[in-house]
């Protein structure tokens, strides 16, 4: 039987022919492979594939989905990938798109964590990452311009975006406070538009009552099953059980992205459990930034080292692999659940003008968030030393101009030329800048 996608019969602006399921798989895998550079770059890549090139999802619907994902704990880019898959093929589409976004990076991190545990840092990986980071920066800037041009159509939206950027970048305001404030300002200050969508209404009807309870119960069982098995087969004090409990807790409180949790995660992993040293934690963050997928995959590195050093009754390598798999499972499974529970209702909200205005406020704040990430990312790409001015009301990153990296700036300029002038694809930009980064580090004697 030929597979058919779920299409929007009412709001077709920007939406073309629905994809075959195999096309969704291929595109999702491509996004998973090239999703370097953190959430801003990953959202940019999804926007480019799903909205601009494939035209499977409209601009309005993509931003609506992004707004919801920004409200959730966990990696927003992975949740957005899941949501996009859900829009096209409901639960099986969401599972496929979400998994294919995670798996390439998770596999790469697993390999790198194993190499690190056996041999230490690998200069070749660091050199490739050096060029990739500079290239990804151009993709982030392109996303910022595209999202901003479509989201900032009212003066108040511009003010919300600017205030969000300053709140995050200069004053260190917690991310949830920024998003909730933007939603409230948007609800009462922006003009929303109502879009009636019979398909969304049907989805909500199908998700009410028993349907909602079934999805919730299934998701909780799937989430908890591996940790429960580990506790029964081994002991509640086994490292696999400790890992599952700790990272499950992080998965439900991780508002604002991985960086918001790094200090707490490092403190617990280093001081409480003794799984690793502080220096190894920083190495893990560096590896997470060099691999595709969400930055929160640094948790996989932590889990691997914990299992590698407390492997009984397995070998160190087997213990590390099992612990890494457990960490990925409990970290990302909740994100699928949030989407499958909430997406039908969020789609229904497109029919409410006041709530639509609130979502527009979030969209404006998201623009400021992407700008914050872009500037933060640029500072850490272009400067070797970035200090943090942390006062009572101020939390401002300040680069040491003496540590400017001219080579990184030149690589970013090459990437910008490829992105904006030649309109090159993500694969080309990543490949060219990775090879250039490798060449420059080799010439400098770093490898």
Query: How many beta-strand runs?
Result: 2
Secondary-structure class: mainly alpha
Average pLDDT, rounded to a whole number, is 84
Question: What is the total number of structural domains?
Answer: 2
Estimate percent helicity.
over 70%
Distinct helical segment count: 17
Q: Outline the low-pLDDT stretches.
A: 7-13, 199-204
Describe the sheet with the most strands. Answer: 2 strands, antiparallel
GO cellular component, one term: plasma membrane
Main location: membrane
Family: Belongs to the chromate ion transporter (CHR) (TC 2.A.51) family.
Keywords: Cell membrane, Membrane, Transmembrane, Transmembrane helix
Ordered list of secondary-structure elements with their pairings:
Layout (H helix, E strand, L loop, with lengths): L20 H14 L3 H16 L5 H13 L4 H44 L3 H29 L3 H15 L5 H15 L8 H10 L2 H24 L5 H15 L5 H14 L5 H13 L7 H12 L6 H33 L4 H30 L3 E5 L4 E5 L6 H16 L4 H18 L4
Antiparallel strand pairs: 1-2
Helix pairs in contact: 1-4, 2-4, 2-5, 3-4, 3-14, 3-15, 4-13, 4-14, 5-12, 5-15, 5-16, 5-17, 6-7, 6-15, 7-15, 8-14, 9-10, 9-14, 10-13, 10-14, 13-14, 16-17
Explained architecture:
- The chain has 447 residues and is mainly α.
- The chain folds into 2 domains: 83 residues, no CATH class; 324 residues, no CATH class.
- 74% of the residues lie in helices and 2% in strands.
- It is built from 17 helices and 2 strands.
- Strands 1-2 form a two-stranded antiparallel ribbon.
- Strand 1 and strand 2 form a beta hairpin.
- Helix 2 packs across helix 5, helix 3 packs across helix 4 and helix 7 runs antiparallel to helix 15.
- It starts with 20 loop residues before the first helix and ends with a helix.
């Amino acid at each position: 039987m030929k597979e058919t996608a779920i299409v929007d019969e009412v709001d077709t602006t920007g939406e073309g022919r629905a994809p075959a399921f195999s096309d969704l798989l291929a595109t999702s895998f491509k996004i998973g492979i090239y999703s370097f550079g953190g959430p801003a770059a990953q959202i940019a890549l999804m926007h480019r594939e799903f909205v601009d090139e494939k035209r499977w999802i409209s601009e309005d619907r993509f931003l609506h989905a992004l707004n919801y994902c920004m409200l959730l704990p966990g990696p927003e880019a992975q949740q957005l990938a899941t949501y996009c898959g859900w829009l096209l093929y409901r639960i099986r589409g969401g599972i496929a798109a979400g998994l294919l976004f995670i798996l390439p990076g998770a596999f790469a991190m697993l390999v790198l964590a194993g190499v690190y545990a056996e041999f230490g840092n690998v200069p070749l990986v660091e050199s490739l990452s050096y060029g990739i980071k500079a290239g990804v920066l151009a993709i982030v800037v392109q996303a910022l311009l595209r999202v901003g041009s479509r989201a900032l159509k009212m003066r108040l939206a511009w003010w919300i975006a600017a205030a969000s950027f300053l709140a995050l970048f200069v004053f260190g305001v917690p991310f949830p406070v920024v998003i909730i404030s933007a939603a409230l300002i948007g609800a009462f200050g922006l003009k929303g538009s109502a879009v009636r969508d019979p398909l969304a209404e049907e989805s909500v009807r199908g998700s009410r009552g028993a349907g909602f309870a079934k999805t919730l119960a299934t998701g909780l069982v799937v989430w908890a099953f591996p940790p429960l098995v580990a506790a029964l087969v081994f002991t509640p004090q086994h490292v696999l059980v400790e890992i599952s409990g700790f990272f499950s807790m992080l998965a439900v409180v991780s508002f604002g992205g991985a960086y918001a949790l790094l200090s707490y995660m490092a403190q617990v992993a280093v001081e409480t459990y003794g799984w690793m040293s502080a220096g190894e934690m920083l190495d893990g963050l560096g590896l997470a930034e060099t691999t595709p997928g969400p930055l929160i995959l640094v948790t996989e590195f932590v889990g691997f080292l914990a299992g590698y050093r407390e492997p009984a009754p397995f070998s160190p390598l087997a213990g590390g692999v099992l612990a890494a798999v457990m960490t990925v499972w409990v970290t990302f499974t909740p994100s699928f659940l949030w989407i499958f529970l909430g997406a039908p209702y969020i789609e229904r909200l497109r029919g409410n003008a006041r709530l639509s205005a609130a979502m527009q406020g979030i969209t404006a704040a998201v623009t400021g968030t992407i700008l914050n990430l872009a500037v933060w990312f640029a500072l850490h790409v272009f400067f070797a030393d970035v200090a943090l001015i942390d006062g009572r009301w101020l939390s401002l990153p300040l680069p040491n101009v003496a540590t400017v990296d001219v080579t990184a700036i030149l690589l970013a300029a090459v990437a910008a030329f490829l992105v904006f002038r030649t309109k090159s694809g993500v694969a080309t930009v990543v490949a060219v800048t990775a090879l250039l980064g490798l060449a420059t580090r080799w010439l400098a004697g770093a490898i």
